[in-house]
């Protein structure tokens, strides 16, 4: 039996703003890479991993901050994401919940987005950690090699 290495190397960042008034709030993202490590195509269980996305919002005045975090499709579609090598593709997915039942996307095609809201005091900063739950389904017949995809993480506040 030969083990094969497949990875989601990293997530690209895109921050977009959506405000209804001239608010003095700034939000930023820090994303840890999601690496699936070694994948055994003959294994009988899915390969599950997690990655952290930290959202930090700061303001100069007291106000209610609301934001949503969405993920792009990457290679493939929101419901059928693909890690790619030179010649093969490997199905994977990222979820908003540990049960891996809600696909994390942009809110379309039956996908969900993560959202949060809180009262932020003047000259304050709050960091919130969100977890992306990744999964590669078992028994995919693919060749050996390094597999990767890049997703765009968008915060709208």
CATH class: Mainly Beta
pLDDT averaged residue by residue: 83
Order of helices and strands: EEEEEEEEEEEE
Number of domains: 1
CATH homolog superfamily: Fimbrial-type adhesion domain
How large a portion of the residues is in β-strands, by DSSP E? over 45%
Fraction of residues in helices? under 10%
Main sheet specs: 6 strands, antiparallel
Structural class label: mainly beta
**Sheet with the most strands: spatial strand order:** 3-5-11-9-8-7
Please outline what is shown here:
By secondary structure, the protein is mainly beta. It has strands at residues 4-5, 12-13, 25-31, 38-39, 47-59, 63-71, 76-77, 80-84, 89-95, 114-120, 125-136, 152-156. The protein is elongated and about 55 Å long.
Topology:
Blueprint: E1 4-5, E2 12-13, E3 25-31, E4 38-39, E5 47-59, E6 63-71, E7 76-77, E8 80-84, E9 89-95, E10 114-120, E11 125-136, E12 152-156
Structure notes:
- This protein has 157 residues and is mainly β.
- The protein has one domain (4-156): Fimbrial-type adhesion domain (Immunoglobulin-like, Sandwich), CATH 2.60.40.
- Helices cover 0% and strands 46% of the residues.
- It has no helices and twelve strands.
- It has strands at 4-5, 12-13, 25-31, 38-39, 47-59, 63-71, 76-77, 80-84, 89-95, 114-120, 125-136, 152-156.
- The strands form three sheets. It has a six-stranded antiparallel β-sheet with strand order 3-5-11-9-8-7, with no helix packed on it. It has a four-stranded mixed β-sheet with strand order 2-12-6-10, with no helix packed on it.
- Strand 7 (76-77) and strand 8 form a beta hairpin.
- It is elongated.
- The relative contact order is 0.34.
